[in-house]
Q: What sequence folds into this?
């Protein structure tokens, strides 16, 4: 399993997010992700029906890496970002 010791606890689907119903098929996954600090939401909302920005995805990857004990890479190894149309905004 990708999260190793952070196994899914299907007994508690209370997410703490106002926009995730306890009986939603994904509620237990969201609850566990919140419990271990992978997700924090925004203003008490998880926003399950909104698009995830590149910035939000990068934060999730970083948190996941930290949970798995991975050492963050050196910022100087970020590579060439000029290929992206919004490189100046990164």
A:
């Amino acid at each position: 399993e990708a999260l190793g010791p952070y196994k899914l606890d299907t007994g508690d689907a209370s997410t703490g997010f106002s926009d995730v119903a306890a009986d939603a098929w994904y509620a237990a996954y969201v609850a566990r992700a919140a419990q271990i600090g992978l997700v924090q939401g925004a203003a008490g909302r998880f926003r399950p029906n909104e698009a995830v920005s590149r910035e939000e995805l990068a934060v999730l990857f970083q948190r996941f890496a930290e949970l798995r004990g991975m050492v963050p890479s050196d910022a100087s190894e970020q590579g060439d970002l000029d290929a992206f149309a919004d490189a100046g905004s990164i």
About this structure: The mean pLDDT is 82. The longest helix spans residues 54-67. The CA atoms of residues 23 and 37 lie 21 Å apart. The chain is about 25% helix and 0% strand.
